[in-house]
Amino acid sequence: MTEDKTAGQTAHFMALAHYYPAAGNEAQVLELLVELTEASRREAGNVSYDFYAPGSNAGEILIVERYVDADAFTVHRESEHFAAIGKAKIIPLLDNRVVEEFAI
């Protein structure tokens, strides 16, 4: 299990989001992910939120999210910042997106 170094919370849920920006959109997606990361890390149930580019596949950005439980991930996906940044700004810039969810 992963433990948050600042809050002492233990992660019991992890999501891996694979984002594939459309040609020419990668820089903009990365800039927006900085904003989304900062807001997501402030969520009460978030243990960690990081992204990596490139991911293991060409053109991929990998987002690794850990939460105290699945309910905290649901809260994240319904949050104002995810709606405003993720859904409204980032997702339209993608060719594809795959999200995997794991109980850990």
What low-confidence regions span 5 or more consecutive residues with pLDDT below 50?
A: 1-6
Order of helices and strands: EHEEHHE
The main β sheet shows up as:
4 strands, antiparallel
Q: Over the alpha carbons, how many angstroms does the gyration radius reach?
A: 13 Å
The proportion of residues forming helix, as a percent range, comes to 25-40%
Number of strands: 4
Please list the strands of the largest sheet in the order they lie side by side: 2-3-1-4
**Which structural category do the helix and sheet elements fall into?**
alpha+beta
Portion in beta strands: 25-35%
- Calculate the terminal CA-CA distance, rounded to whole Å: 7 Å
**What is the average per-residue confidence, as pLDDT, rounded to a whole number?**
91
Instruction: Using the alpha-carbon principal axes, give the shape.
Output: globular
What's the helix count? 3
List the main descriptive attributes of the protein structure presented here.
alpha+beta, globular
